[in-house]
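Researcher: Re-running this chain for the archive, since the previous output was lost when a drive failed. Same request as before.
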Amino acid sequence: MKQPLDMLIIGGGINGTGIALDAAGRGLSVALCEMHDLASATSSASSKLIHGGLRYLEQFEFRLVREALAERETLLQAAPHIIWPLRFRLPHQPHLRPAWMIRLGLWLYDHLARRDRLPGSHMLPLNGAGPLQPHLGRIFEYSDAWVDDARLVVLCAMAAQERGAHIWPRTRCTQARRKNGLWHIELIRENGSLSTVTARVLVNAAGPWVSHLFEEVLPSPPPARLRLVKGSHIVVPRLHDGGEAYILQNQDGRIIFVLPYEQDYSLIGTTDIDYTGDPGCVAPSYEEITYLCDVVNTHFTRQIEPNEVIHRFSGVRPLMADSRGQAQQASRDYKLLLSTDSHQTAPLLSVFGGKITTFRALAEDALNQLTAFLPPNDGPWTTHLVLPGGDFEDHASLAGSLKQEYPWLPHRLVQRYVRSYGTLCRQFLNRHAGITDLGEHFGAGLYAAEVDYLMDQEWAHTTDDVLWRRTKLGLHLTPEQQRQLDAYMQQALQHNG
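Model: Regenerated structure tokens:
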């Protein structure tokens, strides 16, 4: 690796990998380090949505909503395998928001940015039909999009690596100092090996740890403070048969999503609670779980209890500390703060805030701010980005092609491969003539060929990497099957040194 690098990025979440991808695509020399697995924190604990943020209109954040709606169109094109349209239903609660207010908000939502791929909003009478309580007389319907958040991060990292970036998961930055116009950065890998890297530009994209990095790694106080907001989700058996999502209004002003999840389940969230603990040790409280169940039970005929929760997770959103009011009202917008040494060299760009929908725009903004400190390059390019595996027309056409190429593949497996890997699945399906050729079966359609691919090409090292971030098969595998998978992966890691 030639040094100095043009840029080193600390943080392997969506913003860090997005910046790495944009920079590498401009022809710059880039490396990214992440102390754990890619997307191991906030970026895998979102509500799994690419959306403008309908509720942000009430907070008059029109610029943020407009940018997010425009990005929604771009990302639907960039990653059709892991991002797809999702229709939302909003039950009308007249005592919470009058119908005219919702109609106005949805009209703005439809028209704030160009909308080519998604249908507009409208109102529907319920007439006692469907999964909702009979007293809910009508619903409003509108469009947004679903995303497999952790896979989005991994695909950005893969695309960056394809363009020459160095991606180093399980590599912690222990010190960064300016010297002679460059950054000198000390790194320690999971195996204990140490190295020093030099770079012209340093980007702090550590998410909830962005301020903490100044306290332990960087030679200056943080330029801003974070407000950490905890969001928790629960997964329960499927609440309704349709493919639509629901957005529920609650008396306290919060809104709760009920999303179809992994075919057999419903994903419910999120809470918004100020958080002061370690972002790496966050988990849903019993009160949050009960709260989410109660909101669902006031809307759905099928009632749920906390003991029905199959899976739960929390994430910590790193928002700007100057956000006032209740946690759910804190701005999801981002700020990029730039500092240099006394000679106006060795810039440090710190990323505060942001949301998964606007990661591409954030990355482009970051690179544009750093242009003066970087070698001449090709400039912005990601508007027409297609992420690895996204080079196909739609799910149905790709599924049809895979069924022709691999007629022995079960239908459910074809569907999962399409919505997880797109055309990348051919990398572990090619040259196989039958299901037994895929090797050891760990359960729920997870075969050794897929695990080998994830370890070789997508930086997976542990069962959590495979079962909760690269796939969601942790919902299906028994403890014994997970131990079987762990033994297989440990043996593979030892064999590969």
